[in-house]
Design brief:
single chain; mainly alpha; 3 helices; about 65% helix
């Protein structure tokens, strides 16, 4: 995959590029599926292992954030 440069967040154009939806590339669908499947397993293990409460909720939110960042990395080809 070709790498993208990071958007310049000091400019409106860079901010707009950073905030826009980046659809997955056809050749990256397998990567997205692998990441998402791994996060499903991780989520289930964490949900099963932790006692209910605000700490568990925060931990599961962090897992979701990490999943989104991984998919963002794939969609933006590492940028």
């Amino acid at each position: 995959m070709a790498s993208r440069t990071q958007p310049d967040l000091r400019t409106f154009e860079g901010q707009r590029d950073y905030l826009r939806y980046h659809a997955p590339h056809e050749d990256a669908k397998v990567d997205h599926e692998n990441v998402n499947n791994n996060f499903v397993v991780l989520w289930a293990n964490i949900a099963e292992s932790l006692p209910d409460g605000p700490g568990k909720t925060r931990a599961l939110h962090a897992v979701k954030e990490a999943q989104m960042q991984c998919n963002n990395c794939i969609a933006n080809q590492g940028a």
